[in-house]
Amino acid sequence: MIERIREELGITTLAFHGSKPIPVTVSFGLAMLDPDINVEETIHRADTALYAAKTAGRNCSCIWCTANATHMVKD
Predict the structure, then answer these.
(1) 8-23 burial, b if ≥16 CB within 10 A, otherwise e?
(2) Which of 35, 52, 56, 73 has its CA 20 to 30 A from that of 3?
(3) 30 Cβ partners below 8 Å, 6+ apart?
(4) E strands within the chain?
């Protein structure tokens, strides 16, 4: 679902008062909710995944994975 949102935003452009169109891109960091992990840690995991997405070149999604901290879904 998040990849479809990212792809749809990727074909969107913004233009203000006749200016040159600006392409829209977005990166997402995702973490699974776990009842054994507190909310702050879940947010930290999602934030870590978001920074991994940005480091990977932006305009992509990363999912937190306990096996290797983050796992790239799609670039």
Answers:
(1) eeeeeeeeeeeeeeee
(2) 35
(3) 2, 46, 49, 61, 62, 63, 64
(4) 13-14, 22-23, 28-30, 61-65, 69-74
Tens-digit pLDDT profile for residues 12-28? 888 888 889 888 899 99
Q: Rounded to 5 degrees, what angle do the CA atoms 21, 25, 27 make?
A: 165
What mean pLDDT comes out for the span 38-44?
94
Beta strands 13-14 and 22-23 are antiparallel
The region of weakest confidence among 18-22, 47-51, 61-65, 69-73 is: 69-73
The pairing of strands 69-74 and 61-65 is antiparallel
Instruction: Give pLDDT, residue 58.
Output: 85
